[in-house]
Amino acid sequence: MSYFNQQHIIETIKMIKIHHLDIRTVTLSLSLRDCCSTSCKKTGAKIYDKIIKYAKNLVSFAQETENEYSIPIVNKRIALSPISFIGESCDNTDYVYLAKKIDEAGQEVGVDFIGGFSALVDKGFTKGDLKFFEQIPDALAQTKKLCSSVNLGTSKAGINMDAVLKTADIIKQCAILTKDFDSIACAKFVCFCNAVTDNPFMAGAFCAVNEAECALNIGVSGPGVISSAIENLDKNADLGEVSNLIKKMAFKITTAGELIGRRLAQKLNIPFGIIDLSLAPAPNKGDSVAEIFQAMGLEYAGAHGTTLALAMLNDAVKKGGTMASSYVGGLSGAFIPVSEDLGMIEAVNKNSLTIDKLEAMTSVCSVGLDMIAIPGDTPNSAIAGIIADEMAIGMINKKTTAVRIIPVIGKKEGEFAQFGGLLGTAPIMKINKYSSESFVNRGGRVPAPIHSLNN
């Protein structure tokens, strides 16, 4: 019995019961490369059957594992091969039909979300990609569980500005089609630079062509654990000591997550993929990334010094995670979605946090501008400009960046959008009033930076 440390057991219980440690998602990554055919209906049937075959026990086995270890598993999800690839071989492809079949399968197996209604267009479009883009708004408006993503740039290829412009149009169409629900379809759509192929988090999860037939990827979240540990640290501790503490806590969180992930993969009889240690907040008190900044000593997120605090947090999380597991992947760091984090919402309401400051913070965080609500009458060109700025940060810095932005139709700055669940509540944020229309409408492909020539 000397193997067990009473203090460590008590600490783990506190992490779960008091500080909101959870497995944020278990995501089944599933290749659909063998589902292609010339018939859209046959392709849809193959996709449906394959999802049922591999995911029929995902939810029940996840619940068993949750009970076995007493660690909450919040979401059960599926990530599919980019549907733009799978549907392109069909005659007269109806991507909305495929979306509905995927959604139907998702409801049958009981998962929370299905990702992979995706396209990779960083270097240009195929004919199928163009048709796919046109049908994204209707697909998201007519389904419940489906999530969509597009990759618009990479550090190797540059940025496809024509795709950026089309994406801005898609976002506005999604907003209009679901205007009676605070434009919620936009919350299920994200655009990337340098998209990650093993990301288990929505809305950007997909199974790339270089991924295995199937795998189980895990996303662990523990911002409450980190903030509580820092609050209990000596107030005179320097930033090096703070960083070291975060690293230690990340090590513990990752260890627990991999244990759960491998156990569930064993039950499902599929390979374990990766663990994504991302401090993904939830709209609950004590489960906030912004509260970590406050524990460090900032009055509110957005105060001068926030970018450094986030950089240090992200780095320490990655260091602790990679020490704990050889299979850390995905995004792994800190998410800063506005609507899903009570501390971030408070910072916006205090005028401490603006879109411009968030953009600066994205240069050092895991993803980018996430779950940001803006006025519904925002011009498409302004949305394209916001996306382009974020793609530039990713391209130049060789990192993943993303935009999940919601122009809430009928609402203006200072009002709120209500999404519910993990998506939370979003204050409508102010955007720059000056136009970028002539600039973004030039289109074309932004050349890759010189450091892309590193072969």
Structure description:
The protein has 2 domains: 167 residues, Anaerobic Ribonucleotide-triphosphate Reductase Large Chain, CATH 3.20.70; 223 residues, Alpha-Beta Barrel (Anaerobic Ribonucleotide-triphosphate Reductase Large Chain). 43% of the residues lie in helices and 19% in strands. The longest helix has 30 residues. Helix 6 links the parallel strand 3 and strand 4. The N terminus is likely disordered. It has 15 helices and 14 strands. The strands form 2 sheets. Strands 1, 2, 3, 4, 5, 6, 7, 8, 9, 10, 11 and 14 form a 12-stranded mixed sheet that branches. Strands 12-13 form a two-stranded antiparallel sheet. The chain is an alpha/beta fold and 455 residues long. The chain is globular.
| CATH C-level class of the largest domain | Alpha Beta
Order of helices and strands: HEHHEHHEHEEHEEHHEHHEHHEHEEEHE
- The residue fraction in helices comes out at 40-55%
- Overall structural class, as computed from helix and strand content, comes to alpha/beta
Number of domains: 2
Topology record:
Elements: H1 6-17, E1 22-30, H2 40-55, H3 58-69, E2 73-80, H4 83-87, H5 95-109, E3 113-120, H6 127-141, E4 146-154, E5 158-160, H7 161-177, E6 189-193, E7 214-221, H8 223-231, H9 239-268, E8 272-279, H10 289-296, H11 306-324, E9 333-334, H12 342-349, H13 355-361, E10 369-375, H14 380-397, E11 401-408, E12 416-420, E13 424-427, H15 437-440, E14 445-446
Parallel strand pairs: 1-2, 2-3, 3-4, 4-6, 7-8, 8-9, 10-11
Antiparallel strand pairs: 1-7, 4-5, 5-14, 6-11, 12-13
Helix pairs in contact: 2-5, 3-9, 5-6, 6-7, 7-14, 8-9, 8-10, 9-11
